[in-house]
Amino acid sequence: MTSSKCSIWSAWRRRCNLALTHRVERIQAQVREEVSQMLATEVRDPGVGLVTVTRTKVTGDLSLARIYWTTIGDAAERKKTVKALERATGFVRHLLAERLALRRVPEVKFIFDESVTAQARIEELIQEIHAEDAARTVDSPIEADHTPKPAEARDQSSERRPGDDESK
Fold first, then answer.
1. pTM for the complete prediction?
2. Which CATH class is domain 11-113?
3. Which of residues 117 and 59 earns the better pLDDT score?
């Protein structure tokens, strides 16, 4: 291949990769919307409860859709939800096949989203730190404020300093 053909080929591949990336992103968003709707209205398993789909990741070849979710509740409640989602996986994939215009529907895998739990813990720690700071401020004596008042600042700026030149 000549160099001009190689550069044309490279440009074409980049353009195709961008198109594939946009396609995968579009499918991820569609899967997220559809699965959220299904879990809220169509999956009748009482173990599913209040599940929130936080994000989805679909592989480039569209063979696997990882659906990240979270729920309100403790570890026991979460285990019950995991089992219910495992039971509903086939049903969810079947409904996705009906709703997505794809030749092959990706395999569905539900994954608990740990990032939401970590975020809640970080926010809790920040609130504790703020509470400790507020308690320290109340316990410690209030220090005198040494910043000049606006009138004092004006008086100081109007005074002439040694070495100031009047020609400025």
1. 0.63
2. alpha beta
3. 59
Q: 3-state SS of the chain: helix, strand, coil percent to 5?
A: 60, 15, 25
Strands of 107-112's sheet in order across: 51-58, 64-71, 107-112
Strands annotated E in 11-168: 51-58, 64-71, 107-112
CB 71 within 8 A of CB 84: no
Residues ≥6 apart with Cβ < 8 Å to 30: 100
pLDDT tens digits, residue range 45-97?
888 888 999 999 999 899 999 999 999 888 889 999 999 999 999 999 999 99
Contact call for residues 65 and 31 (beta carbons, < 8 A): yes
